[in-house]
Amino acid sequence: MAALVLVLVPLALSGCAGAQNSLNPHSHAATDIANLFWWMMAIAFGGLALVTGIMVAAWFRRKQPDEEHAGERRGNIVVLALGIVMPICVVCALFVVSDTLIINVTQAPAASSTAMTIHAIGHDWWWEFRYPGTRADTADELHIPVDTRINLVATTADVIHSFWVPPLNRKIDTIPGQRNRILLYSNELGTFRGQCAEFCGLQHAHMAMLVIVQTKAAFRAWLRNEAADARKPAGGPALAGENVVLASCSSCHTIRGTSASGYVGPDLTHVGSRTWLAGLSFPNRRAWLARWITDNQSIKPGNQMPEFHFAAGRLRDVVAYLESLK
Ligand code: CUA
Questions:
Q1: Ligand 1 closest atom vs CA 198
Q2: E strand segments, the chain
Q3: What value, to the nearest 5°, has the Cα angle with vertex 158 and ends 155 and 160?
Q4: Which residues contact 187 (CB under 8 A, 6 or more apart)?
Q5: Which of 71, 113, 238, 251 is the most buried (most CB within 10 A)?
Q6: Is there an atom of ligand 1 within 6 Å of 196 CB?
């Protein structure tokens, strides 16, 4: 028994740490959600302590079988008060608090209360982010300015996904044919990890995202670059790689400023500036990128990209071109 507890407790607690921790909030909405959780936890443990205490007291004050009145039922008023009236009151109070206070803070924001809108589009299995009013279109890494209320519109290109960044707010499902909105806001600079929270197929676990909260000036600079067309490589392997990419990849990927305009996979216009790829499956480094192109079905089985077995020199050119797309 002791061994079982020693094994199970660390396993259970290991879920309480890490980058995707809803109990480590970084926004007003997430703070309210975490506080509600702790209050419910405290009240539940209070109830457990009370019931256990009464059971123990009853055990010590029990009558012996030969005593007068043994086996008679008494004290129904205690059972009524603690067993029925009090739980109803507690549950109603928690409902009112969570419904009137927490839902109000975390629900879809009034259109006039937000400074900008961002579209999050779920795909099997990656996230697309668009910034209406600009041509910026990126994947898996959502940049936002600090201290800015953002109207996040969540939709899907295929099945139901769920947009969830635990340190910033509750989750919101992406449902075919429907636009769901949620407030996205952070009062701190930093990078927060989020995750698709609705089972959506084989690679559901590899559908993560980063929210990168920047100063307003840094965000404006990022958005300006992201909205611009891809820069033509000056020469060398990157220029040679461009021809290969446009011939092989353009029916599935868009690279703005070139003939590539596919919409099956992510927009690659500035893929070189991202830190992770494929729903945060691996870091955006040369060796990983090369492996992804030739061997992606073993990294992320079931993803929609075919494997390309380029000769070594060509593969090097392709990777050089993708890396040049900053
Ligand atoms: Cu998308 Cu799970």
A1: 2
A2: 116-123, 126-130, 137-139, 141-145, 150-156, 161-164, 172-174, 180-184, 190-196, 208-214, 276-277, 282-283
A3: 65
A4: 26, 27, 28, 146, 147
A5: 238
A6: yes
Q: How much distance in Å is there from the Cα of 98 to the middle of ligand 1?
A: 27
Q: Which range (112-116, 191-195, 199-203, 277-281) has the least confidence?
A: 112-116
The token duo for 198 is 């609705």
Chain centroid offset of residue 166 CA: 6
Residue 271 CB neighbour total at 10 angstroms: 22
Is this structure's pTM higher than 0.90? no
For the stretch 199-244, pLDDT in tens is 999 999 999 999 999 999 999 999 999 999 999 998 889 999 999 9
Is 30 close to ligand 1, i.e. is its CB under 6 Å away?
no
Alpha-carbon gap, residue 323 to 284, rounded angstroms: 9
**Alpha carbons 72 and 253: distance in angstroms, whole number:** 79
Count how many Cα atoms sit within 13 Å of the Cα of residue 37 in the half-sphere of its side chain: 12
Cα–Cα dist 129/227, whole Å:
12
Q: Which residue has the CA at smallest separation from atom 1 of ligand 1?
A: 161
User: CA-CA distance, 224 to 227, in Å (whole number)?
Assistant: 5
Residue 124 CA, closest ligand 1 atom number: 1
Angle between helices 236-248 and 312-324 (to 10 degrees): 100
User: CA-CA distance, 246 to 239, in Å (whole number)?
Assistant: 11
| Bond into 125 cis (ω within 30) | yes
Please work out whether the CB of residue 209 comes within 6 Å of at least one atom of ligand 1: no
What is the 151 CA–ligand 1 centroid distance (Å)?
A: 21
DSSP of 240-279, one letter per residue? HHHHHHHHHTTTT-B-TTSS-B--SS---TTGGG-SEETT
For the beta carbon of residue 272, count every other beta carbon within 10 angstroms. 18
